[in-house]
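> call design_seq(struct)
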């Protein structure tokens, strides 16, 4: 009977450990998923912009800012955005939405990262003339202040290539599905393994009981 009691104790410990493992796995997945949204939300608030980070998807700002760089953006009042020139390259680098901007044919859907080379006030609206450092000509139309998402305040080189490769190859959604599926399978496997272990322990206990 002492042997049976010990096995029951081990069984309960294993069952408890397995449940804890499943709960911890679910918690970690939830933290990773919701944590990324929380961090992004905090960045939006602290940097005063709906788009606090962007990935550079072209080489128009090389060599100062390169394709694949991850940039941090801070919202600025239009009057505080620094003016500059195409020669000195001393103006703020701003991020703006050019998609649908009147007069800009084939405007990119991704946010544009270009330098301010001129600015002026028309009535109550600020306009910015922008240009990529590597481009021979300025952008085709001025950018009104309501299209500006913010100014670049820093960045991490090359890390944005992960996003570019996944987006260009169309692997973002399939990769998310695969990772999510593997995580779910792992949790289910732990549960099934625990149930099988319980059945084995129960069978062993029955055999032990028959001996007495």
């Amino acid at each position: 009977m002492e042997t049976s009691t010990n096995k029951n104790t081990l069984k309960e410990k294993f069952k408890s450990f397995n449940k804890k493992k499943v709960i911890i796995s679910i918690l970690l997945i939830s933290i990773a998923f919701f944590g990324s949204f929380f961090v992004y939300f905090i960045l939006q608030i602290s940097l005063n912009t709906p788009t606090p980070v962007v990935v550079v998807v072209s080489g128009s700002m090389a060599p100062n800012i390169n394709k694949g760089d991850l940039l941090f953006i801070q919202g600025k009042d239009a009057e505080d955005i620094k003016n500059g020139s195409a020669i000195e390259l001393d103006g703020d680098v701003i991020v703006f939405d050019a998609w649908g901007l009147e007069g800009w044919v084939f405007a990119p859907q991704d946010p544009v990262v270009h330098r301010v080379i001129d600015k002026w006030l028309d009535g109550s609206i600020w306009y910015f003339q922008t240009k990529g450092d590597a481009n021979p000509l300025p952008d085709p139309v001025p950018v009104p202040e309501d299209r500006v998402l913010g100014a670049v305040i820093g960045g991490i080189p090359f890390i944005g290539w992960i996003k570019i490769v996944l987006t260009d190859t169309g692997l973002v959604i399939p990769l998310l599905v695969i990772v999510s599926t593997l995580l779910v399978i792992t949790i289910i496997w732990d549960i099934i393994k625990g149930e099988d272990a319980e059945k084995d322990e129960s069978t062993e206990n029955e055999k032990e009981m028959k001996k007495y």
